[in-house]
Amino acid sequence: MAEDKFEQAVIDKLKSEGWDYLSEYSGVTVDRLYDHWRDILNANNRKRLEDTPLSDNEFEQVKLELTKNKTPYDAQLMLAGAGGVGTVPLNRDDGTQLELEIFYGNEVAGGHSRYEVVNQITFTDLATSLRSKRRIDIMLLINGLPVAHIEEKDESLQNQWNAFEQFQKYDGDGMYTGLFSFVQVQFVLSQNSAHYFARPKNSHSYNRDFAFGWRDDDGKNVTNTMTLLQINQRPLKILDWKTPYQVMLTNLSKNPD
Questions:
Q1: Can you tell me the distance from the alpha carbon of 30 to that of 89, in angstroms, rounded to the nearest whole number?
Q2: Which of 164, 145, 177 is nearest to 241 (CA)?
Q3: Could you tell me if 109 and 89 are in contact, meaning their C-beta atoms sit under 8 angstroms apart?
Q4: For residue 241, which of 105, 145, 202, 221 is within the disulfide window of CB 3.0 to 4.6 Å?
Q5: What are 196-217's pLDDT values in tens digits?
Q6: According to the model, what pLDDT value does residue 220 have?
Q7: Do the beta carbons of residue 19 and residue 140 sit within 8 Å?
Q8: Contact 189, 14 (CB under 8 A)
Q9: What is the pTM of this model?
Q10: Residue ranges of domains in the chain
């Protein structure tokens, strides 16, 4: 199956499992995803903001807070917050101080959190990239925050390891900063093979030994990507937000291969 058709099949499967595909935020630049997150912040914090949406200055202040995330662990701590609710501080233009809620760890797989899929996102002006543009395949968002990055490849094992190296290059380019510092898990998917790994702390720490496949409850390998997506269901529960920087899969065990 061609990569573009396989990508569409993955998106269709995610939609059938409860994820919302955002066509209006696909095939766009990262700035549009910041706009989307801003809308979600305004909606989820309406009472705290007293029905006054974030000003441009206030949103820039929120974005500046994200620069504190130097590693996935830092981002995990920001998501975990206090009592399972991740927040960022905000000084409003009128001098009011408050905490904006950005993530609800206790609501993963339920509650009023949003589970969304976007694809073909273009990055420009990456800090250390020699290329003017980078385009990724699929990103999974929870409450507008990118938490998982998926790249699809054909069945060639070499191409799948090329995808692993591609993630490493993305990291070295400075892709996982700002809003994208929240990416915790990276996936390499093909029609009959699936691997995942926790995003390392930096581009020099990528190691193939930490790329895993899956086994089901009976100890059998799960090699069909569509079966994998069905087993995990909404929202894949790929992260245990109560355990910082640890990746887990509900009802599945790691299978290094």
A1: 23
A2: 145
A3: no
A4: 105
A5: 888 999 999 999 888 877 666 6
A6: 73
A7: yes
A8: no
A9: 0.86
A10: 3-27+114-256, 37-107
Smallest Cα–Cα separation from 147: which of 117, 122, 123?
117
Under 8 Å between Cβ of 175 and 133: no
Q: Please, where are the H alpha helices in the chain?
A: 3-16, 30-44, 56-66, 72-80, 157-173, 225-232
Q: Which residues contact 231 (CB under 8 A, 6 or more apart)?
A: 214, 216, 222, 251, 252
Classify burial at 201, counting beta carbons within 10 Å of its beta carbon; exposed 0-12, middle 13-18, buried 19 or more. middle
User: What crossing angle do the helices spanning 3-16 and 225-232 adopt, rounded to 10°?
Assistant: 20
Give pLDDT, residue 153.
81
Kindly report the number of other CB atoms within 10 A of residue 21's CB atom: 17
CATH of domain 3-27+114-256: 3.90.1570.50
Q: What is the pLDDT of residue 252?
A: 28
Token pair for 73: 């662990």
Q: What number of other Cβ atoms are within 10 A of residue 46's Cβ? A: 12
CA distance 236 to 245: 17
The CA distance from 195 to 186, in Å, is 8
DSSP 256: E
Distance (Å, whole) CA 65 – CA 89: 8
Q: In the chain, what's the furthest Cα-to-Cα distance?
A: 59
Measured CA to CA, the distance from residue 187 to residue 194 in angstroms comes to 7
Q: Which residues of the chain have pLDDT under 70?
A: 1, 107-111, 130, 155-158, 214-217, 219, 222-224, 227-257
